[in-house]
Amino acid sequence: MAMATIIFDLDDTLLNTARLKKDFFNMLQRETNLSHEELRSCYKKFSRQETTFGPVAFLKYLSIQHPIAPSINSENFFSSLDWSHYIDRDLFHALEILKNDHELWILTKGESSFQQLKIQKTGLNHFFSPDRVIVCENSKCEALVPHNFSGDIIFVNDKYHETREVISRYKNFLPIIFSGFSKLTPAKRDDNYQFVHSFEKLFEVLKK
Ligand SMILES: [Mg+2]
Description:
Layout lengths: L3 E5 L8 H15 L4 H14 L5 H11 L8 H7 L8 H10 L3 E8 L2 H11 L10 E4 L3 H5 L8 E5 L2 H10 L3 E6 L15 E3 L2 H8 L2
Parallel strand pairs: 1-2, 1-4, 2-3, 4-5, 5-6
The structure holds magnesium ion.
Magnesium ion (MG) binds next to loops.
């Protein structure tokens, strides 16, 4: 029998991206003379133009909108971080057990090099081999097409509307909405989906 498959989203699901972004913006505030409001408003404008977040592209955009010191470098910043701050300690324990009888995949939207960096720096690469990491810059639905996932597929994601879109196209996907990190994720929206708020709870659901 084929192993059960779980596809995880990366940002705000496996990784506390909200905290990572906060630290990135705090660093920018410290290193530039820009206020929190100026940075936020610049980021909002950037997000309207770009479908994915990448720090390199954002710094380039920011330097066009406001003069910033050329020494500000996202590579230096991300290599100086303690990445264990962005990973929940229950997660690795759960993955260690799940990997024995599940195929573990990541499906993530973002700037490819930045997504790969996050996977490496956090140590998630020990659980997800490179051929089971799908990075896309646009639609997750489209990115799934070449993989032809069959059978029951568990799909864990923090974004409610995006999950609905995937589920409407891939009827064999069983959704779990993870609300542990992002404030934008509803704690419970309807009865059709499972909603979990911690890895402990997620693990309980997955082991059933
Ligand atoms: Mg996400």
